[in-house]
Amino acid sequence: MMNSVWRPYCQMKTAPPPMKIVATEGCHLIGENGERWIDGMASWWSACHGYNHPHVREAVTAQLQRMPHVMFGGITHDPAECLASRLAEMAPEDLNHVFFSDSGSVAVEVAMKMAIGHWRRHDRPGRTRFLAFENAYHGDTTGAMSLCDPQRSMHARYSGAITQQFHVPLPRDETTEAELNRVLAEHSDSIAGVFVEPLVQGAGGMRFHDVNTLTRIRDACRRHDVLLIADEIATGFQRTGKMFAVNHTADLHSPVVPDILCLGKALTAGTMSMAVTIARSHVFDSFYSDDPGAALMHGPTFMANPLACSAANASLDLFEQTPYEVGNIESILRERLSVLRDIDNVADVRCFGAIGVVQFRDPPNMQTVQDELVRRGVWLRPFGDCLYTTPPLCIVDESLHQVCDAMIEATHAVMAQSNSREVNQLR
Ligand SMILES: Cc1ncc(COP(=O)(O)O)c(C=O)c1O
């Protein structure tokens, strides 16, 4: 076998062949023989309006005929100008300055460069490192990898080859808050900013935290005068029930407004790769100067690709026109998945917005879990100790119940298999 395609997160020697998909439609993936699977992953959180939405498709088709791409250095175009001003309008406070890039990981890299550049302009050139949290995941490029949990993440195998950052537990209580403040105080000469996935840590284990934790992080950043960088690449665009997860703090006396916000994934409704890094005015102003050397030196070839911008503009139209009932998705997930709590091997069942997670104590063979799901017409990709769903926001109740049925039945089936194996081993 030639293995011309080197697949992601995959031991090429032992992994079973991937599932071949030839078409998508609504919330479904369609196989070679017309089989249909509900995509309970929304293609890694991105297909928020489902697939092939006519409005998005028409916008991209029209743009394809007019101008599929043009470089962004020294040139601009309406799809990018329009998208930037809409995002600036939607993002809290003065998060008004939108820098385009091609993927979430690159948006994180850009945020790091913005923060380092900001402090250089404020005579703090030593501030080149970052603090992130245990179980964090911020992407797969080398800078983003350095922000991931250095011990527990899949990037641990690169330790020694990437920059060492600071990692502390999320400040869920006074002790961990003190730990955060201590590290920020001790390393105030070197820490440029704090990265957080607000309210939901995704690929680091699908863990949730509350608004108070987020507020403590913001307070610590203020106290130590470092930048707060919110990575909402996964949580953005209503995944948690609000447009952005930080909006859950909007009613507080002092809402959390990050200095820099990263968005991606659902930005183009799962159509094309694009991400943005949005800066508040004081960060932008650090680069705004008569000195050409003070400019932000970054510019990917496909920056602000017009097709991707038109998909994103169409996606924002849909968010304006379609009030999704994410609360309804959360209620169904909560109500249905809670039965799995009765299983000894299930450590936790948790749901927040359009995210439902089943965490195991002693994870079963996840390939077997996936096979059981696929047999039941549902596509999910369990990882680590978690079986989880992040369905398209447009999913109808009937399909969501089907996803829940499959998760429940697949868990029971796999538990029954491992129980019978144990009995056989005893014999
Ligand atoms: C919170 C977070 N940040 C960054 C990334 C990286 O985004 P991308 O895969 O588009 O590079 C991801 C991807 O899963 C993510 O969940």
Task: Fill in the keyword field for this structure.
single chain, 427 residues, alpha/beta, Aspartate Aminotransferase, domain 2, Aspartate Aminotransferase, domain 1, 2 domains, seven-stranded mixed beta sheet, four-stranded mixed beta sheet, 12 helices, 16 strands, 37% helix, globular, binds pyridoxal-5'-phosphate
Tell me what you see in this structure:
- With 427 residues, the protein is an alpha/beta fold.
- The chain folds into two domains: 54-321, Aspartate Aminotransferase, domain 2, CATH 3.40.640; 325-426, Alpha-Beta Complex (Aspartate Aminotransferase, domain 1), CATH 3.90.1150.
- 37% of the residues lie in helices and 17% in strands.
- It is built from twelve helices and 16 strands.
- It has helices at 42-45, 54-66, 78-90, 104-121, 142-147, 174-186, 211-224, 281-287, 306-321, 326-337, 366-375, 397-426; strands at 21-25, 28-31, 36-39, 95-101, 129-133, 166-168, 191-196, 200-201, 207-208, 227-231, 260-263, 275-280, 346-352, 355-360, 378-379, 386-389.
- The strands form four sheets. It has a seven-stranded mixed β-sheet, with helices on both faces. It has a four-stranded mixed β-sheet with strand order 1-2-3-15. It has a three-stranded antiparallel β-sheet with strand order 13-14-16, with helices on one face.
- The longest helix has 30 residues, at 397-426.
- It is globular and about 70 Å long.
- The two termini are 40 Å apart.
- The mean pLDDT is 96.
- Residues 103-105, 108, 137-139, 197, 202-203, 231, 233-234, 264 line the site of pyridoxal-5'-phosphate.
